[in-house]
Amino acid sequence: MATRSPYALSLLAAVLAVGPLAAGDTRDHKAGNALAMRTNESLDGNDDRSGAGPDGLPLARKPRCVPGELLVQFRIGATAQNKLEAMLPIKGRSVEAIRLADARLASMASGVPLANVRGDLERVSLPDGITSDEAIRVLKMHPDVEFAQPNWIYHSLATPNDPRYAAGNLWGLYGPATSPSNAYGLNALAAWNAGFIGSRNVYVAVIDEGAQWNHPDLIDNFWTNPFEIAGDGIDNDSNGFIDDIHGWDFGNNDNSVYDGPASGTTSTDKHGTHVSGTIGATGNNGIGSVGVCWQVSIISAKFLLAGGGTGADMIRALDYITDLKTRHGLDIVATNNSYGGDPFGQAELDAITRSAQANILYIAAAGNDSANNDSSPHYPSNYDTTTGAGYNNVIAVAAITSGGSLASYSDYGATTVHLGAPGSSISSTIPANSYGSLDGTSMATPHVTGAAALIAAATGKRGNALRQAILDNVKPLSSLNGRTTTGGRLDLSFLGSTATAPTITSQPANATVNAGATATFNVSVSGTAPFTYQWRKNSANITGATAASYTTPATTSADSGATFSVVVTNSVGSATSANATLTVNAATAPTITTQPASQSVTAGATATFTVGASGTAPFTYQWRKNGTAISGATAASYTTPATTLADSGSTFSAVVSNSVGSATSGNATLTVTSAPPSTTFTEVESNNTIATANAVASTFIAIKGTHSATGNPDFFALALSPGQKLTINMTGPTGVDWDLALKNSAGTNLASSTGGTATENLSYTNTGAAAMTVYANVYVYSGTSATPYNLALGYVTPPPSVTFNEAEANNSIAAANATPDNATKIVGYIGTTTDNDYYAVNVGAGKKLTVAMTGPAGSTYDYDLYFYNAAGTQLASGTGATTTENVSWTNGTTATTVYVAVKRYKGNSTTTPYNLNITR
């Protein structure tokens, strides 16, 4: 029996999942660049969105792609047979190799992250009857396919303006002091007057529609390929393109980068010609318009046609430009990319990353949807090459108006759009040797591209350094604050300023402090004042830290290792200091070294409790009575007010805190006894029965009586409150045997002492819920004496019984109920089959914790009881087959918190609680 490969089995499953591959498909199937699509809707026909966000702006673009086509990225080493095997189930056919993984690619890969070294990228045609989604699902299962994606369609991001915008309005190049002037132009005149007009040894590429390269205002600044011989029909420079004299048309696959007429009105290649003029219409030639850069070499990489352009052609165009730099050494500093409207595409990002690795900036229009690109991504402006190239070569450009506002159509994004530039009513070159005005982020983008060429020629900066020179010198603009990463607009005045940019002359120094202290960092600068300062912690701006010095708040151990730097800015530029590192000597949390001691006082006296702690000072203290903070009790010692009998049994503890943490002492118990009376109660005779018993007030702690005759028992009535314990110690004359008993009102013995002497001792506790009267009975066993006997009375009032009711959502140690220190009883419920309840119980040093549990009765219930420490280690447990458990654990020398857990073994009830009786 034949076996199937794992891929074949996976493929079979995929086919079964998507249904018959030959099912009918009614879409309009077209291949190549035959794009049937409207392109000039509203401000931009490419970026339709649907839905609306909270600000009323649209949220989701409707992506468009070439019907029946995919871009398939094969892995390195995939053979022709592997490719056929991958495409056979979808009946796909390779119609174009977009990029081949040849030996030259392997040599270029030295030092390049492996994620950016790809195999062959091919454009694949699909037959009728299978959708792109189905084909992608099947292709992804083949081991030689790295990814597959639709062949997305791009469109320019501008539309022709209406006639009211006057031709020749070059406000975008003006500055506040130029004539004519505009406060929101990029102030190119400042750079020109300083002698910075660009260089034809600096190159930029316009990846767009074609451009009229022989326009009178463009011909001097358009590239002519020195490596090709025009008209010989030979690929002289061996780049795969024959006679690419001024660039290449990737949409029509020919060397004609301009397809418009020599005269007359036309929309053909209008967009690309307009963009080119904004970048580099020749300056100071006495005719027409002028670009940002008077001298520059513009290369046309045309891929947008009347219906748009495909991702495949965009990738080929960008790789063409990258190849011109890497193989021929052309100093290409940037590409202008005034198009957009597709979803994320890995193949496109790979191509942009390859350009970033060649130190070519990718300057992109942010989009014309009035939308937030942070929440509704716009591509290609939202791409980021940091992962593949080590920096992001993308600059996303929003459009501003001549009044300084964000253009109504412009996209924005606090984290995805980098700056604004003039984009409304922009006059520039158009086909047939003419001039016209357009609006859009397409028009804002070439201002930045032209600026990149001008700055590159003036400063020698390339790649990321060039990108930072553009972004670091923006002018703040309120309409862009919070809507771009820089909050500013393009400005070139720094190139022409006589002022000098800041230079750091004294770097912030590293600092070492103890936890709880502050640290101060300082910087010194030279340059032209005034300066502004912005301190940063771990590269994030610190609110309000805008002086030459910065002092931290009180430090903690978590601050150790943090870095502090400052950006110093003036009218010319900015400088960023080196990082200073903060070291915080680790503080130690408090440890209780001396526990508060239990106290016994008589009513009316005060009691003093003291705690000792080690760790990093200073400490703060908070004393608690029965688990509740005592107002004003914030010293290492606490003295109570004058005590009463009601205070007896109260517990006192202290929370000691510092900058690191806190520690809670164990509980100290206060016992308050009755104050001794001024006289002893003396028996009044005729007290021989319960009915005639002497009533002895609780303020007396001694009774004196005589037993001079046989048959003369004495009775004394004593009151006991609920829970109160009574002890009686009797001493009498020697040679007489007297006995002692304690009875209730019915005469029933509650306790007795019947030794063979006149010395007897007994005790009894009122366990009921109500006060009661007990009767002490002294009677003769043998002998009589006129010498009195003495009864010493002792009363002990127990701590009050405090019930804590479970707060649900306490199913773990981290969420344990914080149980008050005076709680003697907990009431809770196991309400569901997954319910476990945890309680945090403080246990003092050397104290024994005992918890007795009773729960719902009956064989259908079985709850277990556990003790854990904070780390989840089990300390003790009770796991009998009922809901009655009794668990004890004795603490060591340091107060701690024990987590008492009630867990269900079987049965649960939302109506019958369990009870935990706590002793500690």
Shape: elongated
Mean pLDDT: 85
The count of strands amounts to 60
Largest sheet: 7 strands, parallel
Strand percent estimate? 25-35%
Helix content: 10-25%
* Structure annotation, total helices: 12
| Spans of at least 5 consecutive residues with low confidence | 1-61, 103-115, 158-168
Secondary-structure-based class equals mainly beta
Termini Cα gap: 76 Å
Biggest sheet: strand arrangement:
9-10-8-12-14-15-16
Radius of gyration: 45 Å
Primary descriptors:
920 residues, mainly beta, 7-stranded parallel beta sheet, 12 helices, 60 strands, 13% helix, 34% strand, elongated, disordered N terminus
Give an overview in words.
By secondary structure, the chain is mainly β. It has twelve helices and 60 strands.
Describe the protein's topology:
Elements: H1 6-18, E1 49-52, E2 58-61, E3 65-74, H2 80-87, E4 93-99, H3 103-108, E5 121-125, H4 132-139, E6 145-156, E7 159-160, H5 188-193, E8 198-208, E9 247-249, H6 270-280, E10 295-302, E11 309-310, H7 311-328, E12 332-337, E13 339-340, H8 346-357, E14 361-365, H9 386-389, E15 394-400, E16 419-422, E17 426-430, E18 434-439, H10 441-459, H11 463-472, E19 475-476, E20 488-489, H12 493-496, E21 503-506, E22 511-514, E23 520-522, E24 524-526, E25 532-537, E26 540-541, E27 549-551, E28 563-569, E29 574-576, E30 580-585, E31 591-594, E32 599-602, E33 608-610, E34 612-614, E35 620-625, E36 628-629, E37 637-639, E38 651-657, E39 662-664, E40 668-673, E41 681-682, E42 694-695, E43 702-707, E44 714-720, E45 725-731, E46 737-743, E47 749-753, E48 760-765, E49 772-782, E50 785-796, E51 802-805, E52 817-818, E53 823-828, E54 836-843, E55 848-854, E56 862-868, E57 874-878, E58 885-890, E59 896-906, E60 914-919
Parallel strand pairs: 8-10, 8-12, 9-10, 12-14, 14-15, 15-16, 22-30, 32-40, 41-43, 42-44, 51-53, 52-54
Antiparallel strand pairs: 1-2, 3-5, 3-6, 4-5, 6-11, 6-13, 7-18, 17-18, 19-20, 21-24, 23-27, 25-26, 25-28, 28-29, 28-30, 31-34, 33-37, 35-36, 35-38, 38-39, 38-40, 43-50, 44-49, 45-48, 45-50, 46-47, 46-49, 53-60, 54-59, 55-58, 55-60, 56-57, 56-59
Helix pairs in contact: 6-10, 7-8, 10-11
